Amino acid sequence: MKKIIPVLVFLLIAGEFFWFINKPSKFNAKELGAHLSCHINIEDCSVKFGQKDVEISLNPKPLKVMIPTTLRLKNLGEYENLSVILKGVNMNMGKIESRFVKNGGIYEANVIFSACVGDMLYEGVLYSNGKPIGFKFEFLLEK
What we know:
Blueprint: H1 4-22, H2 29-32, E1 45-49, E2 52-59, E3 68-74, E4 82-88, E5 95-99, E6 101-103, E7 106-112, E8 120-128, E9 131-141
Antiparallel strand pairs: 1-2, 2-3, 3-7, 4-5, 4-8, 6-7, 8-9
């Protein structure tokens, strides 16, 4: 009997742990991302920013978690110390911060996406010298 109690306690704790990590989220990333006009996971996107059409691309496609990914912005304009902060909308995975390097008229940054379970809706916000420039974009990272 003394040997069964620790086993039962272990099974109870393990069961609660697995239920917690697999419990259904109250947010559905695909439903949250349904309003997106472009799916950057499979194609490059063009976003209106002021008077410009800024092209956003993430490569390689399709996007995958824990794989180095290049974020490119074309036709954005001139900004000093441009950076991006990416955050999960449907789940807090912390911040993914990266600085851009300008090559001609193209800004490039390297990022690595993380995901916990299911699909992730991400929001990207651009900063110049640590201040937001008013450019935001969202995309769905399908796991």
